């Protein structure tokens, strides 16, 4: 058994284990875990500085998860857009393959909270049907491996999936969505990086939400991937009590660049049942974006997006910088100064 697999077997998975380390309301936490599973790696647990802090909120079950009855289990309608088991085809030229149902840490804000870690919620047990589907539709040029976490698969299993995909002539790029650099950095071994390197062009999007998650261990994990020629992006979720502060978000984006991870998306919370206590207003997100632009490098700016209900796709959310009237075009600078700009006539 490898080091990272031993770490997984040593995770906190029951409220009783958690109660030995922290003062929690055991009965309330047990009720939550009956519905939404618990798993925290010892590494990620070690990042908690105090109960209720940003790391705690992301991984420790909260009774508020059971009070959210107004949001939907599958607000993005993923099951409707699933032509074969474990595959989601929402956009014309790309698909998502759910190759795993497990994660190293079960995040309390998970967009697939209805299924990740739950009994019977497996990924694709027989990958041939998904690969056959992708091979049949020549407009598909981009495949995203997701889950759960694809990097919790053993190297040979993941390599088998990648080999099958790379045999499809019209498939151009492969992306992997993973949080293990954040929650289980020892999973990013030299052998894994060496294996992934064989399947370029391959991209990895990871998921840092707070500056406290960027450590020497997570930095080393990202370095191994980057040194293998894999471009790294980051998808942050805007979370109340975690990163809904312009200073926190700015520092997160700056530190990501320092470890060679490009900020990609800042997600407005999906309307997933059991996660309502993490939601912020869109106004709060727009304010954060305004406090990023001009105050730090343009490289540090993610695209603030909302994934529309019903599977209608992502839409960017942008602060108002431009106003047009009879006198012309007026643009507001990051410092609040309004500057007139002479536009050309539209032909």
Account of the protein in words:
With 347 residues, the chain is an alpha/beta fold. The chain has one domain: Aldolase class I (TIM Barrel). 29% of the residues lie in helices and 17% in strands. A nine-stranded mixed β-sheet has the order 1-2-3-4-5-6-7-8-9. Strand 7, helix 12 and strand 8 form a beta-alpha-beta unit. The protein is globular and about 70 Å long. The N and C termini lie far apart (67 Å).
Descriptive labels:
29% helix, TIM Barrel, 12 helices, single chain, alpha/beta, 9-stranded mixed beta sheet, 17% strand, 3-stranded antiparallel beta sheet, globular, 347 residues, 12 strands
Brief write-up:
Helix content is 29%, strand content 17%.
CATH architecture: Alpha-Beta Barrel
Number of helices: 12
> Helix amount, in percent?
25-40%
Question: Major sheet, described briefly?
Answer: 9 strands, mixed
Radius of gyration, taken over Cα atoms and rounded to an integer in Å: 21 Å
- The coarse silhouette is globular
Report, as a whole number of angstroms, the end-to-end distance. 67 Å
Order of strands across the widest beta sheet? 1-2-3-4-5-6-7-8-9
What is the total number of structural domains? 1
The beta-strand count equals: 12
User: What amount of the residues lies in strands?
Assistant: 15-25%
Residue-averaged pLDDT: 94
Unreliable stretches: none
List the secondary-structure elements in sequence, H or E: HHHHHEEHEHEHHEHEHEHEEEEE
What fold name goes in the CATH topology slot?
TIM Barrel
């Amino acid at each position: 058994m490898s080091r990272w697999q031993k770490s997984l077997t040593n995770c906190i998975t029951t409220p009783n284990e958690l109660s030995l380390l922290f003062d929690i309301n055991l009965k309330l936490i047990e009720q939550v875990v009956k519905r939404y599973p618990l798993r925290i790696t010892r590494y990620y647990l070690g990042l908690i500085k105090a109960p209720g802090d940003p790391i705690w909120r992301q991984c420790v079950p909260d009774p508020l998860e059971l009070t959210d009855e107004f949001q939907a289990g599958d607000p993005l309608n993923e099951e409707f857009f699933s032509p074969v088991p474990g595959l989601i085809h929402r956009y014309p030229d790309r698909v998502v393959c759910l190759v795993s149902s497990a994660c190293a840490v079960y995040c309390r804000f998970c967009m697939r909270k209805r299924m990740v870690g739950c009994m019977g919620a497996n990924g694709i047990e027989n990958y041939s049907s998904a690969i056959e589907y992708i091979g049949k539709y020549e407009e598909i040029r981009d495949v995203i491996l997701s889950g759960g976490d694809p990097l919790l698969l053993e190297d040979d299993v993941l390599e088998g999936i990648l080999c099958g995909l790379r045999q499809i002539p019209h498939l151009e790029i492969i992306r992997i969505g993973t949080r293990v650099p954040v929650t289980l950095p020892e999973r990013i071994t030299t052998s894994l990086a060496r294996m992934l390197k064989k399947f370029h062009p391959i991209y990895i999007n990871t998921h840092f939400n707070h500056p406290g998650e960027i450590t020497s261990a997570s930095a080393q994990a990202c370095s191994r991937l980057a040194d293998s020629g894999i471009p790294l992006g980051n998808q942050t979720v805007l979370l109340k009590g975690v990163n809904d502060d312009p200073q926190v978000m700015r520092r997160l984006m700056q530190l990501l660049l320092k470890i060679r991870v490009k900020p990609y998306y800042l997600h407005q919370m999906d309307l997933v049942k059991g996660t309502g206590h993490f939601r912020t207003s869109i106004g709060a997100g727009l304010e954060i974006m305004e406090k990023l632009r001009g105050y730090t490098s343009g490289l540090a700016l993610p695209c603030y997006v909302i994934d529309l209900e019903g599977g209608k796709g992502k839409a960017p959310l942008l602060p108002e910088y431009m106003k047009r009237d009879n006198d012309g075009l007026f643009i507001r600078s990051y410092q609040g100064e309004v500057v007139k700009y002479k536009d050309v006539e539209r032909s």
